[in-house]
Amino acid sequence: MKYIGVDLGGTNIVVGLVDSEGNIVKSYTRPTLTTRKTEEIFDDIIDMCQIIIEEFKLDSTSLKGVGMGIPGEIDSKKGIINYSNNIPMKDFNVGSYMQNLCKKVNMDIPFFFANDADCAALGELVAGAGKGHSDLIILTLGTGVGGGIIINHKIYSGFYAGGAELGHQTIVHNGEPCTCGNKGCLEAYASASALIRDAKKAAKENPSSLLNSLTNNNLENMTAKVVFDAKDQKDNVAIKLVDDYIEYLAVGVANLINIFKPEVLLLSGGISKQGEKLTTPLKEKVSKKVFGSDLQTIIDIATLGNDAGLIGAAMLSR
Amino acid sequence: MKYIGVDLGGTNIVVGLVDSEGNIVKSYTRPTLTTRKTEEIFDDIIDMCQIIIEEFKLDSTSLKGVGMGIPGEIDSKKGIINYSNNIPMKDFNVGSYMQNLCKKVNMDIPFFFANDADCAALGELVAGAGKGHSDLIILTLGTGVGGGIIINHKIYSGFYAGGAELGHQTIVHNGEPCTCGNKGCLEAYASASALIRDAKKAAKENPSSLLNSLTNNNLENMTAKVVFDAKDQKDNVAIKLVDDYIEYLAVGVANLINIFKPEVLLLSGGISKQGEKLTTPLKEKVSKKVFGSDLQTIIDIATLGNDAGLIGAAMLSR
Fold first, then answer.
1. How far is B296 from chain A (nearest CA, A)?
2. Model-level pTM?
3. Which residues does residue A90 pair with via DSSP β-bridges, in sequence order?
4. Which residues contact B179 (CB under 8 A, 6 or more apart)?
5. Chain B interface residues facing chain A, Cβ-Cβ under 8 Å?
6. CATH code for the structural domain at B133-301
7. What is the CATH number of domain A2-124+307-315?
8. pLDDT digits over B169-204, tens only?
9. Partner residues linked to A81 by β-bridges
10. What residues of chain B lie within 8 A of the CB of A173, using their CB?
């Protein structure tokens, strides 16, 4: 049996054929071009699905379904995109629109829809760092902090659409302003953007810090990697920044463990490339914060990178 | 079909017969006497179950099972009490011990075990304020802040035992010390104890506040009810205390809604007796804090009081 996955991102659309082990057999990429009409974006997706179906001569005995990972608030049950910020879409009945693919290839296809971060969580469970487990939480440390929850092999995103907003738990009441309009969210402390914000401020206040030389004295060049590099070179300002960053991340992680006690908690996104430099101090801090008995949850780095979303989307139709 | 529920509390053991609608047909109460051996406590429970089984002439065609709500960390799958603080118990194999009841009444009985707060959540879903719904979260605002989660009609308490510790989410990094050893937990702001702590401090700092006269100038008489009463009598100090209390509670509630988007979120425990005086301002604050679309979750007061735990325990064997 084969599975088609669609990863609709702010930059690219990726449509791929995935086998039952979660391996990508073939994939195609086209630019999303977010300024066009929603229907035009999905016409491209339909076209890409059709190409794969015809190339691999898929029929209803060999194709289990098409799963789609979409940024924003998705009503998975009804097949409706309530809204999306990255790609301007609102109240779009994607379930109904995708029937156009069925007409084109003249076959009944089951469609499945989920938020893209939720798909990434499922992808890691099936074919990534969560393989062999059943219950997983993923935090994506990028421009924002995304989240996905897997309970008993399935995506959990709340009773109403759009839950699992793990980056928007308040950890500092009246703290740093968050992009969501609230204050003190985990995202406002544990995203790459938050680390860059704090690093720029610290660099200004400490002219001799390596944060300045490593950015060629232009703070617009500041990245999360620069901060971790400066820390590796024993820059005291960067050491403090990274320690604070991991402290806040640990608060959010411990909160989630106290609620879900998951088998595995994975970190993905740009900052997760720090690997054990991130997870070792994080585990130490989380151990001290979790309620009750010892830390049982495995804390690790996600392994599939950008493929997680595509693989997880495909696996929606398992 | 009938169901036996056991509510093992720090003060009393309640064992009752419950019908399929969640009504208590009959119940018996004995003191827990927590200083005795764990086996002796469970011998009492076995005895009380036997009395009910014989009184109602229950057999395997009329008794679905015995469900037990136990304070502490319960491994529901294995039938083991990992530990309990309220009643000193550790690594007790309750599943195995309850087989003594089967021998006494000469019948096979299915046993079910869960944390007592989780049982209260299930009780409210079956027969209380959550009736007719499938997905519910309960926060008990008492000496501490307890929590229970129901997903799709079933208790969710994490992959490993002892999750759903909703009172131990950090909402103020490095905030007030919590009984759990951590700082800034929701419990350290939204428990009755937290409100009493803050009210004592405020009363001392404001000698003319009603908080002093209403406690006969003895702050040891301070209760959460006194603070709400003083607020109702337009005492400015109490108005601020209650507003701050509800603000922190709103942060915790919004965090949970951002993750679970539950159908219903219920408040129970002493402070919940304030009813709409609590829920009306709470809903207003939560509405401003939740991520994305409008507040869909119903926020309400639990209705079963102390019976919730017994009813929910019985309903474990549904």
1. 8
2. 0.94
3. A83
4. B144, B187, B188
5. 73, 82-83, 134-135, 149, 151, 156-166, 168-173, 175, 180, 182, 247-248, 251, 254-255, 258-263, 289, 291-293, 296-297
6. 3.30.420.40
7. 3.30.420.40
8. 999 999 999 989 999 999 999 999 999 999 999 999
9. A74, A92
10. 171-172, 175, 247-248, 251
